[in-house]
């Protein structure tokens, strides 16, 4: 990716807009009648649903990062020339990309994080901003992934419903949350971490006991 400081020339514009002030309700300019949906006239993008677009910090009761990608264009010609391929991403402000373990916050990026102190499962990363942004970026061209069956997360869907394990092979190929999970796995592996694996049946009793204690 290349940083572009001119908004109109940028293909992807990321906003931290919890209050969503850039969206205006679509109305007939003559009659003033509501046409349904919302317009972002700065980026000439349309959100064709009745629900006001946004990514409030506690949206859906979830306290963590939240993101949404918009890529449908308004009709007509924008007053300012826009990039030929464009999308906007709204991202809420989450807590830091870290995990509270025994009252202490560990960052997955920190070079001083204690390897032995981190006992993680893949869903621990589910609402981190880094994972959310990767999920949303995968919705943009040329990838254009989808949220098939509203399936999110690996073992647990934070919104309830299906997880990515419930998807077919075909759906997995083009599913946005899969890209986010793969990105988090790459991050963890790059830092030298590994997820705690359940001991085999023939493992020593101490190893099994330690595993049971850790998973608690």
Describe the structure.
- The protein is an alpha+beta fold.
- It has a domain at 113-215.
- Helices cover 19% and strands 17% of the residues.
- It has four helices and nine strands, in the order βββββββββαααα.
- The protein has helices at 129-137, 169-173, 176-190, 205-215, and strands spanning 12-15, 24-27, 34-40, 45-47, 67-70, 72-73, 87-91, 98-101, 104-107.
- The strands form three sheets. Strands 2-3-4-6 form a four-stranded antiparallel sheet, with no helix packed on it.
- Strand 8 and strand 9 form a beta hairpin.
- It is elongated, with a radius of gyration of 21 Å.
- It comes from Clathrospora elynae.
- This is Lysine-specific metallo-endopeptidase domain-containing protein.
In a nutshell, what does this entry contain?
The protein is built from 4 helices and 9 strands, in the order βββββββββαααα.
Chart the SSEs and their pairings.
Layout: E1 12-15, E2 24-27, E3 34-40, E4 45-47, E5 67-70, E6 72-73, E7 87-91, E8 98-101, E9 104-107, H1 129-137, H2 169-173, H3 176-190, H4 205-215
Parallel strand pairs: 1-7
Antiparallel strand pairs: 2-3, 3-4, 4-6, 5-7, 8-9
Helix pairs in contact: 1-3
């Amino acid at each position: 990716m290349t940083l572009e400081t001119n908004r109109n020339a940028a293909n992807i514009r990321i906003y931290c807009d919890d209050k969503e002030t850039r969206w205006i309700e679509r109305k007939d300019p003559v009659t003033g009648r509501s046409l349904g949906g919302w317009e972002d006239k700065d980026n000439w993008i349309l959100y064709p649903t009745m629900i006001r677009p946004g990514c409030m910090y506690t949206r859906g009761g979830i306290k963590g990062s939240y993101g949404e990608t918009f890529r449908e264009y308004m009709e007509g010609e924008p007053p300012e020339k826009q990039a030929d391929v464009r999308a906007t991403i709204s991202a809420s402000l989450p807590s830091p990309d870290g995990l509270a373990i025994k009252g202490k916050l560990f960052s997955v990026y920190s070079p001083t994080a204690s390897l032995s102190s981190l006992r993680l499962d893949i869903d621990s990363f589910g609402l981190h901003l880094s994972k959310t942004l990767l999920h949303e970026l995968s919705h943009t061209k040329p990838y254009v992934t989808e949220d098939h069956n509203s399936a999110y997360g690996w073992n647990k869907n934070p919104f309830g419903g299906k997880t990515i394990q419930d998807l077919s092979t075909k759906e997995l190929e083009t599913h946005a949350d899969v890209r986010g999970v793969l990105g988090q796995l790459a991050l963890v592996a790059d830092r030298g971490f590994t997820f705690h694996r359940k001991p085999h049946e023939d493992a020593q009793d101490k190893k099994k006991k330690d595993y049971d204690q850790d998973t608690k």
